[in-house]
Write a structure and sequence with these properties.
The complex is a heterotrimer of chains A (190), B (320) and C (442). Chain A contains five helices and no strands. Chain A is mostly helical and 190 residues long. Chain A is globular, with a radius of gyration of 21 Å. Chain A has one domain (9-189). The mean pLDDT of chain C is 87. Chain C has 442 residues and is mostly helical. Chain C has 21 helices and no strands. Chains in contact: A-B, A-C, B-C. At the A-C interface, helix 2, helix 3, helix 4 and helix 5 of A face helix 1, helix 2, helix 3, helix 4 and helix 13 of C. The complex binds sodium ion (2 copies). One sodium ion binds at residues 120, 123, 161-162, 164-167 of chain C.
C-alpha cells in the first residue's frame, strides 16, 4: 500500500506534464508562467460563477443576498482580465482588423505584429507608472470598498504590476515567439 | 480662461437645468467675463471624477462622496436618516458644518472644495401600499448604499444593491418591489410607469451628500481677483442654489406622480409609521460618530452644529 | 474639428493599414489626441505635463475591468463554451437541421432567430454574439455552411435584441431625453420584428445568389425529427431558465449570465463531459476571450474621451442646426452622421455622447422623440456591424481565432443593407414605431 502510492503520484505528474505540453505552445519558464496565470484566471472565473448563483439563490429562496456580491464580482473581473493579459499579449492574440491581409505579404504582417508588440509594451510600461501612483494615492487616502472594506489600492497595484508583467514578457518572449511562430491572429493566413 | 465643468447626470437633472447654468452665469458676471464656464459630459464612472479633477482632466465637477467609501466619511452627517427635511436647508447646514468642523480633517486633500449639497429626502417608491412598516418586511428593495443600508436592515427588507438608474429596469422586470430615492425620480427616472405607491416621510429616510470641487492648480492659476470672485459665488450661495434646485425637482416629481395616478401618501409627523421609523433609526447617528472616530474632528459637536443649522434653516423657511 | 478628422484618419491607417490591434490603436489615438487638445505640440513633447492624459487612460483601464455590468461578457461566454463542450450545441443544431436543413440557408435562419430571441431577453448584443459564436458556429460549419454566412448571421442576429424590449439602450435613451420608457418599449417591438424578418430575407438573398454558402440537406421524416429533438432538452431547459428567470424577475440580466454559466456547468457535469483538464481548458479559454474584449472596450472608451473633449458632437449639432433645408432632410443628415460615427464608435459611448446634443434639435423640428429613440437604436445596432470598428464582429473574431474579421464583414454586408432598408422604412413610415404606443398609451 505504502509502496504503491508514490508511483501513482509519479504517473499523475507525468500525465500532468503531458497535458501541459499538449495544452501550451510555450515551453519552459513561459509555459509555467502561462499555466500559473491561467490557473488564477480559471479559479477566479469559477468563483465568479458560484458567487452569482449563490447570491441569486439566497435572495430568491432565503430573502438574504450576499453582502458585497457586486464588489466581489468587480474585484474578480479585474483579477481575471489582468491575469490573462500577459498571455494573450505575448501570443499576439489581440483583436485586429485584417481587411487587407489578402494583399499584404506574410513578412510584412510579421513586421506589423512586431510593431504592435513594441507599442503595447511601451504604452503599458508608461501607463502602469501612473496606475501605480494612483494606487499609492488611493491607499494613502484610505479608499475602501463599501461592504468588505477592502482597500481598492491593492487591486490597482495588481493592475499596474500585471501591466508591467505584460510589457516585460512581450518584449522578451513575445518578440521571440512572433519571430518563430505566427501570432494567434494570423494563424489563418499561414 | 475657460473653466471645464463635468456633468454625469442626465440633461433633465436639476444639476444640468439649473445649477450649472446659473453658476456659470454667476462666475462670468463676477469675473467680468474673464472666466467662461463650459459644461462637458463625463461618461466614465462618477467616482473617478475626484481623480479626474485632481489631475487636471477637468477643472470642476460635482459627485457623490460615498462613491469613495473610506476617504469621505464626514459629509455623511447629512445622510443620517431623519436629519434633514429639505434639500436646501440640508445643503446649507452641511456646508456650514463642513467649514466649521470638517475642513481641518483634510478629506479633500488634492482638491479645492467649492461647495456641498444634498438631494431632497429619500423616500419609498413601491409597487405595494405601505400601510404599516411591517409591510416592508421581506420586500426586495433597491438601495444605493451609505447609511440607508443600516435602516434597510432594520426594516428587514431584502436589499438589492444597484445604481439609481437601474431602478426602472429592475422594477419593470420585478427583480425588486421598490426603491429608495428622492421624490424627483418619479419624474426623472419615470418611476410613475413602474410603481404604484409613493410614501413620503416628512424627513425622508436618508439623503446623499454631493461635493462640488475644483482643481487646485486651476484655482492657483487665476488672478487673486478672479479667485475671490469665484469663491463669492460658491460656498453657501452655491449650496443654497443646488439645494433649492434639487428640492424644486422633488415638488415636480410629486406633482408628476399625482398626475399619473400614483398613490401618493404624505405622512404627517405624528403618523404611526413616522413614529416607528423614528424609533428604528435611533442610534444610527451614534454609528456615524463611531465611523468617523479616526478623523480628528469633534464628531458629536459637529452633529449638534449640523442639527442647529438645519433647525435655523427650517425656521427661516417657515417665515413668510 | 481638424484634430478629430486627423484622429479618425490616423486611426483608420493604424487599424487597417498597419494592422495594429484595435485596442492599442484606439487607445493611442485617444491618448495622444487628448494630449494634443491639452496643448501638446512637437515643441513641447519633452516639457509637456502628461499627468492628465495618463490619469485619463489609467482611470479608463481600472474602472472598465471593474465594471459590474461587463461581467456578463465572461459569464455568458462561459455558458456558451460549456454548452458546446457538453456536445449540446451540436445536438441543438442536429435538431434544427432535422427540421430546417432541407431548406437552403435553413440553419442560418434559425441562428438569426435564436440570436434575436436570446439577445432580446438578455439585452446585450455583445453577450449574445459571445454566447452564440461557440454554440452556433461549429455545427453550421459541419453542415457545410460558408464561414461568412454563418458568422454574419451570428454577428448580425446578436444586434436584434437591443431594440426588442426589454432594452437597456432604450432605458438609457428614455432617461437622457425624459421620454416614456414604456412607450419606447412598445415602439421598439414592431421595428424589432421587422429587423428579424429582413434578416431572414437577407439570408434568403445570400443563398439565392450563392446556394453553396448554405447548402440544403435531405429532408427528414417526422419520426426522425422527433428523435433529434430528444437530444436538446438540456440546452432548451437552460435557455428557458436564463430567459424565464429574467422575464419573471428572479434575477437581473447581469445575474442571468452567472446563473446560466452555473446551469451549463451542472449539465456538462451531469453528462460526464468534464474532466479537470477540460474544465481548465474551457474556463481559461473563456478568460482569454474576455480579456481581449475588455481590451477593445478600454481602447474604444479612451478614444471616445478624445472625441468628447474635442467638442465634436457639439460641432456636428451646430452644423446640422445651421442647415436651411426641410426637417426630414435634417433627419437624414443626422442619420448619415450616425452611420459614419458608427464606423469608429463603440455603441454605448456613441449614444451617450450624441443623444443629449441631438434630441433638443429633433424635438424643435417637431419630430416625435419616441420615434427618434427607435431610429437612434437602429443606427446603434447598425454600428455594431459596421467596419472597421464593429464590436459584434470583434467578439466573433476573439472567440473564433480562425475566422478573419474580413470574412465576417464581407458576410455581414447583406444584413447591413437589410438594416438600412429597415431604417428608411421606419424614418418614412413612422407608424411602424408609433402604432403600438399610440394604441396602448394614448
Ligand atoms: Na432586449
Ligand atoms: Na462600428
Amino acid at each position: 500500500m505504502t509502496g504503491k502510492q508514490p508511483i501513482n503520484v509519479e504517473e499523475e505528474s507525468m500525465a500532468f506534464r503531458a497535458w501541459l505540453d499538449a495544452h501550451y505552445r510555450e515551453r519552459g519558464l513561459f509555459m509555467w508562467l502561462a499555466f500559473s496565470l491561467e490557473l488564477v484566471a480559471v479559479i477566479t472565473l469559477f468563483l465568479l460563477m458560484l458567487l452569482t448563483c449563490a447570491d441569486v439563490t439566497g435572495r430568491y429562496l432565503f430573502n438574504n443576498s450576499i453582502d458585497g456580491a457586486i464588489e466581489l464580482t468587480r474585484i474578480g473581473l479585474a483579477i481575471m482580465v489582468f491575469a490573462e493579459l500577459p498571455v494573450i499579449s505575448w501570443r499576439g492574440g489581440h483583436v485586429v482588423v485584417d481587411l487587407l491581409d489578402s494583399i499584404v505579404s506574410h513578412r510584412l504582417i510579421r513586421v506589423f505584429s512586431m510593431l504592435a508588440a513594441l507599442l503595447i509594451a511601451t504604452s503599458l510600461y508608461f501607463v502602469a507608472w501612473r496606475i501605480w501612483e494612483l494606487a499609492e494615492r488611493s491607499l494613502r487616502r484610505g479608499e475602501v470598498t463599501e461592504y468588505l472594506k477592502f482597500p481598492e489600492g491593492y487591486l490597482i497595484y495588481y493592475i499596474a504590476l500585471m501591466s508591467w508583467v505584460t510589457a516585460a514578457t512581450m518584449i522578451t518572449y513575445g518578440i521571440y515567439h512572433l519571430w518563430v511562430t505566427p501570432s494567434d491572429n494570423q494563424l489563418v493566413s499561414d | 480662461t475657460t473653466l471645464r465643468a463635468a456633468t454625469w447626470l442626465p440633461p433633465s437633472n436639476p444639476q444640468n437645468t439649473t445649477v450649472w447654468p446659473t453658476w456659470a452665469k454667476w462666475v462670468e458676471e463676477a469675473t467680468e467675463g474673464r472666466v467662461k464656464v463650459v459644461v462637458e459630459d463625463y461618461t466614465g464612472h462618477p467616482k473617478t471624477l475626484f481623480s479626474a479633477v485632481e489631475d487636471g482632466i477637468l477643472d470642476v465637477a460635482s459627485t457623490v462622496n460615498t462613491y469613495l467609501p473610506g476617504r469621505f466619511k464626514l459629509p455623511s452627517v447629512a445622510e443620517i436618516p431623519g436629519e434633514i427635511s429639505s434639500a436646501e436647508g440640508g445643503s446649507v447646514a452641511l456646508w456650514k458644518t463642513y467649514q466649521e468642523y470638517f475642513v481641518e480633517a483634510d478629506e479633500y486633500d488634492g482638491l479645492k472644495v467649492l461647495s456641498m449639497f444634498v438631494h431632497g429626502p429619500g423616500q419609498m417608491h413601491t409597487k405595494f401600499p405601505v400601510n404599516t412598516l411591517a409591510d416592508m418586511k421581506g420586500k426586495k428593495m433597491r438601495i444605493g448604499g451609505g447609511l440607508v443600508n443600516e435602516l434597510a436592515a432594520r426594516l428587514e427588507v431584502t436589499p438589492v444593491n444597484a445604481p439609481a438608474t437601474k431602478s426602472y429596469e429592475m422594477l419593470q422586470q420585478g427583480v425588486v418591489d421598490g426603491t429608495f430615492l428622492p421624490a424627483q425620480e418619479q419624474k426623472a427616472l419615470r418611476l410613475t410607469e413602474v410603481t404604484t405607491d409613493l410614501t413620503l416621510f416628512p424627513k425622508g429616510l436618508y439623503t446623499t451628500a454631493f461635493t462640488i470641487f475644483m482643481n487646485p492648480d486651476f484655482f492657483e492659476g487665476l488672478s487673486p481677483e478672479d479667485q475671490e470672485a469665484i469663491m463669492s459665488v460658491s460656498g453657501e450661495k452655491l449650496a443654497r442654489l443646488a439645494g433649492s434646485a434639487w428640492g424644486a425637482a422633488d415638488a415636480e416629481g410629486i406633482a408628476t406622480a399625482k398626475e399619473a395616478g400614483i398613490h401618493v401618501v404624505e405622512l404627517s409627523p405624528d403618523d404611526p409609521r413616522v413614529v416607528e421609523m423614528h424609533k428604528l433609526a435611533e442610534g444610527i447617528d451614534q454609528q456615524w460618530i463611531k465611523d468617523v472616530a479616526d478623523r480628528k474632528v469633534d464628531a458629536a459637536a459637529a452633529l449638534a452644529a449640523f442639527r442647529k443649522y438645519v433647525a435655523e434653516e427650517e425656521e427661516k423657511a417657515a417665515k413668510p | 474639428m481638424t484634430v478629430v478628422l486627423i484622429g479618425f484618419a490616423i486611426l483608420l491607417l493604424l487599424i487597417i493599414g498597419l494592422r495594429l490591434p484595435i485596442a492599442i490603436a484606439m487607445g493611442l489615438v485617444g491618448f495622444f489626441g487628448f494630449a494634443v487638445l491639452q496643448g501638446l505640440t512637437l515643441d513641447t513633447l519633452f516639457t509637456f505635463n502628461w499627468k492628465a492624459a495618463l490619469t485619463l487612460a489609467s482611470n479608463r483601464i481600472t474602472e472598465t475591468v471593474q465594471d459590474y455590468g461587463l461581467s456578463v461578457i465572461p459569464l455568458f461566454i462561459l455558458m456558451g463554451n460549456l454548452i458546446t463542450r457538453a456536445g449540446l450545441s451540436q445536438k441543438l443544431y442536429d435538431a434544427s437541421y432535422a427540421f430546417l436543413g432541407h431548406r437552403k440557408g435553413g440553419l442560418a435562419m434559425s441562428t438569426v432567430l435564436a440570436c434575436g430571441g436570446f439577445s432580446a431577453i438578455c439585452g446585450s448584443s455583445l453577450a449574445t454574439a459571445a454566447t452564440m459564436s461557440k454554440v452556433a458556429m461549429p455545427p453550421m460549419r459541419r453542415f457545410g455552411y460558408d464561414d461568412s454566412l454563418a458568422a454574419a448571421s451570428i454577428a448580425a442576429g446578436g444586434t436584434l435584441g437591443i431594440l426588442i424590449p426589454p432594452s437597456v439602450i432604450l432605458v438609457i435613451y428614455g432617461l437622457l431625453t425624459e421620454t416614456s420608457i414604456r412607450e419606447l418599449f412598445a415602439a421598439g417591438f414592431l421595428p424589432g420584428l421587422l429587423g428579424v424578418l429582413l434578416y431572414l430575407l437577407a439570408v434568403r438573398y445570400v443563398v439565392w445568389r450563392h446556394p453553396e454558402r448554405g447548402p440544403a440537406g435531405k429532408a427528414f421524416s417526422w419520426p426522425e425529427r422527433l428523435r433529434a429533438l430528444s437530444g436538446v432538452w438540456g440546452v432548451l431547459a437552460l435557455f428557458a431558465l436564463v430567459m424565464g428567470g429574467i422575464y419573471l424577475g428572479v434575477f437581473t440580466p447581469t445575474e442571468a449570465a452567472g446563473v446560466g454559466a452555473g446551469g451549463a456547468f451542472l449539465i456538462a457535469l451531469f453528462r460526464k463531459t468534464l474532466s479537470l483538464g477540460v474544465v481548465f481548458e474551457v474556463f481559461s479559454d473563456t478568460a482569454r476571450t474576455s480579456a481581449m474584449l475588455f481590451a477593445v472596450v478600454i481602447g474604444a472608451l479612451i478614444f471616445s474621451d478624445f472625441i468628447n473633449r474635442a467638442g465634436f458632437t457639439d460641432l456636428l449639432v451646430s452644423y446640422v442646426a445651421s442647415l436651411q433645408v426641410a426637417p426630414i432632410v435634417v433627419i437624414l443628415v443626422i442619420l448619415g452622421i450616425y452611420i459614419l460615427l458608427g464606423m469608429v464608435f463603440e455603441s454605448l459611448s456613441m449614444l451617450l455622447l450624441t443623444v443629449p446634443v441631438f434630441y433638443p434639435l429633433v424635438a424643435e423640428l417637431g419630430f416625435n422623440l419616441v420615434w427618434f429613440g427607435i431610429v437612434v437604436v437602429v443606427v446603434t445596432e447598425i454600428s455594431l456591424i459596421t467596419p472597421p470598428v464593429g464590436m459584434n464582429v470583434f467578439v466573433l473574431s476573439a472567440v473564433l481565432k480562425d475566422i478573419r474579421t474580413g470574412t465576417i464583414f464581407r458576410g455581414v454586408t447583406p444584413f447591413w443593407v437589410a438594416d438600412i432598408v429597415r431604417l428608411l422604412l421606419i424614418v418614412f413610415i413612422a407608424q411602424i414605431a408609433l402604432f403600438l404606443p399610440d394604441l396602448l398609451y394614448r
